[in-house]
Amino acid sequence: NEAEKAAVAEKTARIAEEGVPAEVHPLVVGFTGYGNVSGGAQEILDILPVRSISPAELQDAAHDRSRDARVVYKVVFKEADLVEPLESGGAFDLDDYYRRGAGGYRSVFDRYVNDLTILVNCVYWDDRYPRLLTLAQCRNLWAPGRKPKLKVIGDISCDVNGSVECTVKPTEPG
Fold it and tell me: Could you read off the pLDDT of 79-129 as tens digits, one per residue?
């Protein structure tokens, strides 16, 4: 749609010229997954002025107000960033994770969620795997008196009560 393209172009120009609003700077968008769903969502974000950072850089980057406000920071999480083996000191193994799921791995995504402004969930999930973000973690994150950095969760995978447990119903297009 031409109107939507024009709106994105206007936002891109504004960010490049003025930067993102101070109250969300640095603006960090995190994507879970790296498949087709994530790639499509990233393609839209990449229209904006974007700088990629790694999960290891996230904590420092997310709170460094001296960073360039004329870019949006993007981080992509792979399975090895999202979970760890239950056995202390065990190494992550993708095939083992897919085979054992929650029986052998736990989510460690809570290490990152406080550093994101926007979370875009794009991973496949079923009940064999640990949740990335539980209701209890959400309640803690948005507890009275707290002002978390995380402002938006876009659960594109839309697994109701799934990896992002606070997804309780799909949004109806309108």
Answer: 999 999 999 888 999 999 999 999 999 999 999 999 999 999 999 999 999
SS3 22: helix
Please check whether residue 166 is in contact with residue 133, taking contact to mean a CB–CB distance below 8 angstroms.
yes
Q: What are the residues facing 28 on neighbouring strands? A: 73
> Which residues share a beta bridge with 31?
76, 120
Q: Which is it for strands 105-107 and 83-85: parallel, antiparallel or unpaired?
A: antiparallel
State how far the Cα of 83 lies from the Cα of 97, in Å rounded to an integer.
9
- pTM, two decimals, is 0.93
- Chain length of the chain: 174
Q: Which residues contact 148 (CB under 8 A, 6 or more apart)?
A: 114, 141, 142
